[in-house]
């Protein structure tokens, strides 16, 4: 009887070990799927920008014949391309509170958590929560740099604003 109990106990441990291993592998797969999705988005963006720049180069007249207006238009187009690329990676790799701090400092006005969420995602922040707006609110409520002025609406705390003004 003890032998049977030992066998069952060993099998139960193996089952739990394999379940945990399966869960870990599924989490890794989900992370890889997210990375693949992001890489595809950046690839598509880069290819689009490449085509736009290539078409501009084809349609541009040779530099020695370009008028001042044409030169300004070409420079403006390149700056717009850089702006599009910059916006998609602006907050990539930084925490939600740090990205929000930069966003609110740049905006200069309070923003709702939903708007913050949209801007952070556009800027490259990865938020893996089922309720991202709530996650952002919780993060900002815990950080002293932010002040909640209405439900889910935040601005920089006065101390942060004063520090910025002194700089």
Description:
With 167 residues, the protein is mainly α. The chain has 6 helices and 3 strands, in the order αααβααββα. A hairpin with a 2-residue loop joins β2 and β3. The longest helix has 58 residues.
List keywords for this structure.
Arc Repressor Mutant, subunit A; 167 residues; mainly alpha; single chain; 3 strands
Summarize the structure.
The protein has 167 residues and is mostly helical. The chain has helices at 2-59, 68-89, 96-107, 113-122, 132-142, 158-166, and strands at residues 111-112, 146-150, 153-156.
Order of helices and strands: HHHEHHEEH
The number of distinct helices, counting runs of at least 4 residues, comes to: 6
Provide the spatial order of strands within the biggest beta sheet: 1-3-2
Provide the residue-averaged pLDDT: 82
Shape: flat
Taking all Cα atoms into account, the compactness measure Rg is 25 Å
Beta strand %: 5-15%
Question: How would the blueprint of this fold be written?
Answer:
Elements: H1 2-59, H2 68-89, H3 96-107, E1 111-112, H4 113-122, H5 132-142, E2 146-150, E3 153-156, H6 158-166
Antiparallel strand pairs: 1-3, 2-3
Helix pairs in contact: 1-2, 4-5
